[in-house]
């Protein structure tokens, strides 16, 4: 499945503006990547995964800035996120704003999804890659999470200082710089990526809440989401369905029923998109296998079981086909 990255032109425009600030001729640079000049508006731009990946990698190289993602993220304030940002500005609580992000983040980016997790006094926005971001994982996650933290800062005002931001990799910036950007505690080399906040902050009424404006914005968000879902390929929709179910993958028959078609019709439609149910399931398993192993919390046997393999040997063979080495060797390299 060829991955397309869809982002508002404004986001890519800000990325190019950061690069331009380092004296780079961005028109020539973007032309070499065969990327159209991004406009400072919220119209969607679609790039191939490789175009987007090279854009981020070369931006980091051209600027020589290890914290490039953070420099982009700091430019993405609440008023840059279109109708989603407007809805958040009128939310009645941080919880309501967080649930907006969880449901409608795909209106702004399909690179990650958000799961709101709540346990006792623990309230988290957990950012999960929709597919393996590979060598641009750090700048992308830093940019997106800082952008969402900017939203929380606006709607919760000074109370957002009580948040903690977590990243699953080592920092490329000093603590003072990070504090100036996030205005809260930042922890790197954690086992997850996201924002943690006290539950009392999540439920505190917001001063700027406007229930009428919120309902109107929510209705527009829902219509926009339905439009995206209708226009996306069947392959993408099944891929996302499987990811949302994690280790409880629906069978071909159940998947067909979910999309209101027979298994034969589903198979034919996927053939027209040069893929199959089996191929999509294989890609989802491949992605989740790396995610589970990288977490360091699961054994090879547990990963195999979680991915629906009845025999560990079958998982080992599949992993070696994907990555050229057995999962045990991958763990040793990690």
Automatic annotation (TrEMBL):
Query: What Pfam families does this protein's entry cite?
Result: Arabinose_bd, HTH_18
What residues does the HTH araC/xylS-type domain cover? 236-333
Source superkingdom = Bacteria
The record ties this protein, via SUPFAM superfamilies, to: Homeodomain-like
Q: Mind telling me which InterPro entries this protein's record contains?
A: AraC-type_N, Homeodomain-like_sf, HTH_AraC, Tscrpt_reg_AraC-type_HTH
Q: PROSITE patterns annotated for this entry?
A: HTH_ARAC_FAMILY_2
* Keywords annotated in UniProt: DNA-binding, Transcription, Transcription regulation
Q: Which SMART domains match?
A: HTH_ARAC
User: What is the protein's given name?
Assistant: AraC family transcriptional regulator
